[in-house]
Every structure is written in structure tokens, then in C-alpha cells.
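Recall that a protein's primary structure is simply its ordered list of amino acids. Everything else, from secondary elements to tertiary packing, is in principle encoded there. The following example makes that idea concrete.
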Amino acid sequence: MGGARHSWADVDTGERYLTDGLPMVWLSYNPNHQIIQTPDHVVVLHEMFRDRRIVPLDGRPHGSLRQWNGDIRGWWEGDTLVVESTHFVDRTDDRWAATWRMPTDTMQLVERFTRLDSDTLEYEFTVTDPAKFVRPWSVRIPLTTNQAARGVTQGPLYEYACHEENYSLANVLSGARAEDAVGYGTRRIRK
């Protein structure tokens, strides 16, 4: 068979509306998040893909069950919420638009949320994954609740329901089958 799209599994996880993975990048479209705290949990709801991360704060150890977005635990270090995710499922056979976020079973993610003022959180994450990187690396991003200053739509989060009336996956696969039928998938492009 020719073409790059033989099945739904050949389309990246974002196009299949599953997830773009971790760490959460607070950029691009639909970058809004809602953070809710109870006495023993913090919930981070990402508008894109409706990813929900429920972070236990009760001191329980990590479990052994491997999960798509890891096994999450959190604790406070002074005014900073530290969130550690481990025990990821190795998803290297899936296609990821951002391969640096593709989980492996050796990935560890540590995130830090620190309030700087009434409108601003500092979000910092460190990725350690010897299967993909030669050393750990970190990013620090300021986050603001001032939606107007960020240039995003003001108001509440809405359901990200991109599957409704979305024919892209069916169209991508039918286009690949049409290319297969006329032999485009095996044709070389001349330079």
C-alpha cells in the first residue's frame, strides 16, 4: 500500500482528539486552563481536548499502573505546588505532532506552580526521559488570569467538542485510499 495513512492509527494523537500529551504547553489556540483546589486534590482542566489532571495531595505513593498521562502526585513546598508524574505508558508507536511530548516508560515530569501576584502564576516544568533526551531540561512560563492581556477570548471555558461534524479523519483516510488506487503512494517526487 502507498501513502502515509493506512489507518486511524497513522494520524497523530492531536488530530484524533486524544491529547497532545504532557507537559501542558500554555500556548497556541484554546490555551485556557482552570485550576481548582480542594483540601486534598488539585484539578487542572485544559480547554483543549478537555484533558483533566486530578492531582492527589494526600501523600499517597505512586501506584504501579502505567497511564497515558502518567501517575500523578502533588505536594506543597512552601507556596509552590509541585506535581510529579511518573509511570507513563510507552506510546512511541503512536504518532505525535510534538514528539518531544510523546511518553515513554522512562519519562518523569515535575511541574511547579508558584503564585507571583493576584493575576500571575509561574509555571515551570522539568522533563527527565533517558529514552529521548541526554539530560533533563526545564521551561519556565508566566501564566496570567488576565485574558484580555493574553489576547484570548474572555469568559468561561467551553467544551472542546471537535468531533461533532468533523470529517477530517474520514477525509484523510479516503484521500489516502484514492492515492493508493492510482499509485501515488509509490511514486517518487522528483527534485
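Confidence is low (pLDDT under 50) at residues 187-191. The two ends are 23 Å apart (CA to CA).
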